[in-house]
Amino acid sequence: MAWVEIARRGRNHGLMLMAPALEAFRDPRAFKPYSQCVTKCRQFDNSRWLDDAELAQYEAAMKKEARQDLEMLAENARERVETIRDMRRYAESLPNSFALGKQEVAAKIKAFGEWTAKCWSNPYDYVVLNRFLPDEVVAEVNARVAGVEAQNEVLSILFGLDKTTDAREEKKALLQLALKAKNAGENERTPELQPDVAALANKFAHLGYYYFRGKPHDESVVRERLKHLLEKTAEELEKSLSEVARQERNAGEMEALEKQLGLDETTCRKIAVLKEYGYVSSIADEDYNFLVHRHAPLFKKLCREWGITWEEFAMLTPSEAAKAVAEGLQERMKPVLAQREQDHAVVLEEGAIRVLQWEELAEYRKKELKKEEPLHHLNELHGQSASPGRASGMVKLVQWPQDVAKVLKGDVLVATSTNISYVPAMQRACAIVTNDGGLLCHAAIVSRELRIPCVVGTKVATRVFKDGDRVSVDAVNGIVKRMARDA
Question: Do the Cβ atoms of 453 and 387 come closer than 8 Å?
Fold first, then answer.
């Protein structure tokens, strides 16, 4: 058997997420037929992996369905949206504080695990679709539009999201507040502005999470982002708001563009499918983060009672946490959780889920992992243009949420992949470069909304560049170059 790395996440996610997510793979009722071939999956070395042969079967099954019934693919995405929205509604029904008995707490933890499994059923559909369907649309566009720059502009519209997301709504609210402050001659600390700051922080606090990583956005985060926006002129802020309004009109622009280009019905349906899956991938992150945020008061209360950190709590499986509520967290579990937080692997194989740590993990790592050497001698990388444009700046590597603060205005954000907790840094960056991803990935979607250059799928950007390097990003042709020191 050969494992294929399909997504690098910067750091392993906790078993409070991964255990129920992997359990979902063992329940064929949770999957559409093209996903039932997935029986092996692992989180290892901060990455997600699938079996090579099963991934090929998965892709073949989705290609077959794409040829036979594109509407069924779109319907599958819409069904998942409804499941995710049900999860959001459940999370909204939770109290802001918890004073519950042991049985009620255990029930809440069980429900959290069940919603996690529902949210992350069919989680790799968009990853597999990204391997072939965008290329088919790109080929149709390139056959009709002359010039790389014009082609990229067209694709930005065709792959833009029709439906709004929390990230877009937060951006719009921040811009409106910044424009209000600018016109009144106020700054981010003006007392009259603080009720708006508090309301915005409360509404979008969950966007600071990346599952159990990161922390909720608070008023200090909002003020810092307002400070950045207030460096712009009123005209620039109005222009940014106009761009948000344009994104809200994307469906109409796309329909007009499809007619203008004379795209056939099949290509238009492919675009619709891709937009549905792009939307699914965006709200799945946002709404799951909301689920975590709404449970945080309960989970942090348990952390205090048991004498463990938030990060260590995330390393419990839901069943372990429920048992600890009933019986108390055994002292022997504390070093287990600390070690899981430091490093672990979780493997679904032959119908069983194994958690590897300590000596067992060391042996597995020795057997499975090839050492990756830095590639600092390389000066040029090629990837896929996800959002057109050109920019240059200083590299800032972002591998997990703690790195977000080091990205300053005009830096080039370089990451394995991006996630929702990186958005404040992405808004300050002049360009984005990632190892992973395609036209449906988070970096692609957000960079198109921000209208900043983005190159994805370079494979090795984080191994080639280091903090402080100056690079030029040509996101028209998908080229990233290291610049001379005096450039």
Answer: yes
